[in-house]
Amino acid sequence: MRMGKSRVLVVGGTGYMGRRIVKASLAEGHPTYVLRRPEIGLDMDKLQTLLELKQQGAVLIEGSFSDHRSLVEAVKQVDVVVCTMSGVHFRSHNLLLQLKLVDAIKEAGNIKRFLPSEFGIDPAQMEHALEPGRVTFDEKMSVRKAIEEANIPHTYISANCFAGYFVGNLSQMGTLLPPKHTLHIYGHGNAKAVFMDEDDIATYTVKSLDDPRTHNKTVYLRPPENILSQTDLVHMWENLSGNTLEKITISDQDFLALIQGADFVGQVGLGHFYHIFYEGCLTNFEIGEDGEEASRLYPQVQYKRMDEYLKRYL
Ligand code: NDP
Ligand code: GNU
């Protein structure tokens, strides 16, 4: 039994969520390792991010998804693995690359907890999801199946909506900034969603990764004051910015019709938005005994409220 803080390996450590988890892991005092993939080649941003993380105390470990041995050797050096594999390269099914990591973890045999790349809608709630957006959930469920068949101890993080993708833009699609004059409201705009600052997602993830209470559980990030509707977000923004936006309502029928005309990537995003803002899929179920709620487990975490988050866009 290892004494001291668990050693954590982040796979995907230069990514949007990955880099935040490396920093949160270091801040929490874990010996923290980051996979350095030879494939990054001449990607200067990735290289500089890795070197910055190393400067902040992370240890870089060479490893490649095309070299099973290298993954086994990397995994053998730690106690916990967190994977933040991207979910948007739908054509290359890169979430399924995680199956190689599962194989390595299975062979190494030493891992106390594996957190696969989830960080969004709970895919176990999405059997009914619309095509083609369901690909995200189906791939995440395939990875879960492999983990559970290999009896790998795990924790799934259902982070709900990243504020960067859903709050700064007042949940408008195809943009990351607030609209200046008019905005689209989904239905009556009152389906409750949950919005999280990405740094808080990383903090809650690191708190969960070796907590006995989250062993083989799904951790939902559903802090009470961040359970908000699109209308709540719009009112926060109008109060902060002092200007009122013209609202255009899109009925669920009209929204679904948009899916017909969009390209593949557009259809995926539209599908996700439909489930979130018309169905309310993030809040239309009770957390069962297979789940925990992060702000209840870790009440000491002062999570960022979304009016505070919106101030950076003024
Ligand atoms: P990124 O697009 O930042 O990619 C993360 C990492 O994936 C990259 O840094 C890279 O790792 C790795 N990666 C990508 N392609 C390959 C490949 N071909 N081979 C090996 N590694 C690869 O991901 P995000 O941080 O945006 O997404 C992480 C998770 O969060 C996903 O599961 C996604 O579904 C979810 N998400 C949820 C959102 C929400 O609102 N809830 C919003 C956005 C994402 P390396 O650092 O080693 O190069
Ligand atoms: C991220 C997006 C923003 C999509 C999840 C299309 C998986 C999840 C909330 O990466 O659709 O404009 O749960 O035009 O489980 C991102 C979504 C948001 C794209 C994917 C995601 C959220 C993935 C858009 C857009 C801002």
Q: Can you walk through the features of this model?
A:
With 314 residues, the chain is an alpha/beta fold. It is built from twelve helices and 13 strands. The chain has helices at 18-27, 44-55, 68-75, 98-108, 134-149, 163-166, 198-208, 230-241, 252-261, 264-279, 294-297, 306-310, and strands at 8-11, 32-36, 59-62, 80-83, 113-115, 155-158, 161-162, 182-186, 193-196, 217-220, 227-228, 246-250, 291-293. Helix 3 crosses helix 4 (98-108). The longest helix has 16 residues, at 134-149. The N and C termini lie far apart (51 Å). It binds NADPH dihydro-nicotinamide-adenine-dinucleotide phosphate and ligand GNU.
Helix content: 25-40%
Instruction: Calculate the terminal CA-CA distance, rounded to whole Å.
Output: 51 Å
Spatial extent as radius of gyration: 20 Å
Question: Helix count, per DSSP?
Answer: 12
Bin the strand percentage: 15-25%
Strand order in space, largest sheet: 3-2-1-4-5
User: What is the overall shape?
Assistant: globular
CATH structural class of the domain at 8-160 and 196-221 and 286-298: Alpha Beta
Oligomer kind: single chain
CATH-defined architecture of the domain at 8-160 and 196-221 and 286-298 = 3-Layer(aba) Sandwich
Instruction: Report mean pLDDT, rounded to a whole number.
Output: 97
Q: State the CATH superfamily name of the domain at 8-160 and 196-221 and 286-298.
A: NAD(P)-binding Rossmann-like Domain
Order of helices and strands: EHEHEHEHEHEEHEEHEEHEHHEHH
- Class from helix and strand fractions: alpha/beta
Which ligands, by name, code or SMILES, are bound? NADPH dihydro-nicotinamide-adenine-dinucleotide phosphate, ligand GNU
Number of strands: 13
Poorly predicted runs are none
Instruction: Please give the largest β-sheet.
Output: 5 strands, parallel
Could you tell me the CATH topology label of the domain at 8-160 and 196-221 and 286-298.
Rossmann fold
